[in-house]
Amino acid sequence: MNKLFAVLLLSLVVSGCGTTLTKQEAFPKMYNEKPHSIVVVPAVNNTTASDAANLFSTTIAQPLAEAGYYVVPVPFVSQMLAREGVSDGAQIRNIPASKFKALFGADSVLFVNINQWDTNYYVLAANVTVGLDFELLSTTTNEVLWQYDNVIVQDTSGGNSGNPLIDALVTAVNTAATDYVPIARMVNSRIINTIPVGKYHKRHGADGNDSGIVKAKVQ
Predict the structure, then answer these.
(1) What is the value of pTM for the model shown?
(2) Cα dihedral angle (206, 194, 192, 18), rounded to 10 degrees?
(3) Is 14 helix (H, G, I), strand (E, B) or coil?
């Protein structure tokens, strides 16, 4: 009986990890506040890849705009913050959200943590991993309106030609030549696909019942 109970409990835990919500269930404050403009601040880079934050900044505006939001131009934001003496993403988290409304007129601010930006090489097998988490705050209430994270692992292995030397060489070349920008773009798109669409999207206000939001990634 104890073993049966343990199995049932484990099955509940495992199934709970994959529980999905609708957008309305996951992000009710987005539907209450209805933000329409977003200022994206420099990301916090928690990796050893020195260029990760810069590469990320080149891929974020487009998916947000396609989701129906006005995005304050990212280079302009960086310049303005630099004039204020702030250039590091970690410093920015200490700034009240209302400050971004005063500076840019936006009704929300997006904070991003880059948690993984790594190349893993094992001679015959290799991959590139990019992991990001996003948090959108209201510049009026300072409350979290939307939060989500995701990780993408891109295989850069050389395949299986039957010749280990050739496979190792192809793997090394593929991994060395990996362009992180398309991978970052994929991560951005998958994460931003979970955000309730903005006022400039044709489905604005009509996507609350869209499902597929993984509960574990919201909290």
Answers:
(1) 0.80
(2) -170
(3) helix
Tokens of 203: 């489905």
* DSSP-assigned beta bridge partners for residue 133: 113, 149
The β-bridge partners of 146 are: 136
| Tokens (6 digits) for 117 | 């930006």
Cβ burial of 35 (10 Å; 0-12, 13-18, 19+) is: buried
| pLDDT tens, N- to C-terminus, the chain (219 residues) | 443 333 333 333 334 456 999 999 999 999 999 999 999 999 999 988 888 888 888 889 999 999 999 999 999 998 888 888 877 777 888 888 889 999 999 999 999 999 988 766 444 445 678 889 999 999 999 999 999 998 888 765 545 544 444 444 444 444 444 566 777 788 888 899 999 999 999 999 999 999 989 988 886
In the numeric block, which tokens belong to residue 202? 């044709």
